[in-house]
Write a structure and sequence with these properties.
alpha/beta; about 130 residues; Nucleotidyltransferase, domain 5; two-stranded antiparallel sheet; 4 helices; 5-stranded mixed β-sheet; globular; 7 strands
């Protein structure tokens, strides 16, 4: 998170530095990927790329494009992704071979958080949790 003050859900502002140490971001080079059967949505840290969230297809060429300069060029070294069906396997293996630290998240546990209704929000939430 940036060093500026953020507004809480109650509308009051708080300073990130005042958060307990265990709640501060410790993994600032993290990305989040929402896995789908036809599309994968990737969120990288804000300010690292022109677009913080991108859509990629699920074919081999799309997966290679996702793993090539798009994430490593943004300074991403680690990725959190959902374990949706069998669709995560090819991307997981490709990212590991390219040197990324990949964490697999149980989609049921992540989906239990209220208020997230889209793939874009899901990948951003995964990225936020992984930081």
């Amino acid at each position: 998170m940036s060093k500026r003050k953020k507004k809480s859900s109650s509308g009051r502002s708080f300073d990130v530095k005042r958060l307990p140490r265990h709640l501060q971001h410790i993994n600032i080079h993290a990305a989040g990927i929402d896995i789908g059967s036809e599309k994968h949505w990737v969120a990288v840290p804000e300010g690292r790329d022109e677009v913080a969230v991108r859509e990629f297809g699920a074919f081999t060429a799309d997966l290679q494009a996702l793993a090539d300069p798009d994430m490593s060029g943004c300074g991403v070294t680690t990725v959190a992704m959902e374990s949706t069906g069998v669709y995560w396997i090819a991307l997981f293996e490709l990212l590991e071979r390219r040197g990324f630290e990949v964490k697999l998240v149980n989609a049921r546990h992540v989906k239990n958080v209220a208020g997230r209704k889209s793939d874009v929000l899901d990948c951003q939430w995964l990225q936020q949790l992984h930081t």
